[in-house]
Design a protein that fits this description.
With about 240 residues, this protein is mostly helical. It folds into 2 domains: about 5-80, Orthogonal Bundle (Arc Repressor Mutant, subunit A), CATH 1.10.10; about 80-235, Tetracycline Repressor, domain 2 (Orthogonal Bundle), CATH 1.10.357. The protein contains 11 helices and no strands. The chain is flat.
Amino acid sequence: MARAERQVSIWSIPERQGRGPSPAYSRAQITEAAVRIADADGLEAASMRRIAAELGTGAMSLYRYVPSRDDLLDLMADHVLLEAGLPERPSGDWRADLRLIAESTREMWLRHPWLADLHRPTATLGPNRLRLLEFAFGALDVGIPIDEMVTLLDMLTGYVERVVRGEIEWRREMREHGMTPERWMMQSAPYVRTLMETGRYPMFERIVKDARIPHMTSEEQFRYGLERVLDCIAGALPDAPRPRA
């Protein structure tokens, strides 16, 4: 039966099933090889055939350990979450803890840009994902309903993933076409001036003339936006201080 029909997580299937000789490989070995390949050559390169070649075995033998491509992607996405380096439990300072999650997630994605190519309809429930979930919800467990926590953490996650996807795309543009944000703004300048001369786009003109964000580094932009997201979360919490101006 196809995985889509039986809705089984790879972590619900024992790594070693039944009796018999010890397995020659582990899921961890296969996953680590897949991550190395994806880091070097992209997600599509991390095929069972390529992984098997790196491990010195046949591709079909690996399906005993990882039944499908979707299972492999789930394992890879969960594996790199080890790099988050979160403490055992929240510190008691929810803002510092959520900032740590956001910044470590960004760094992880930039180290493994193939994460931006994963389009999974549901979050995996692997051990590292669950540990991150426990830490994040524990940090925000300050007397608000669980649905509030879900919504606020979704807002944080959405911000981080949107921004880092953009960073990854710019890095690809620079690598493949030599295009940087600065070069793009220079090339766009004549057209931008034409738009401004029409007088029909006053808000766009304010952005061009007054906005500092386009001239910040990507890290500065990320942190500026992150603090505003955290301010919004603070506003939804009991006895929260007013956001900074």
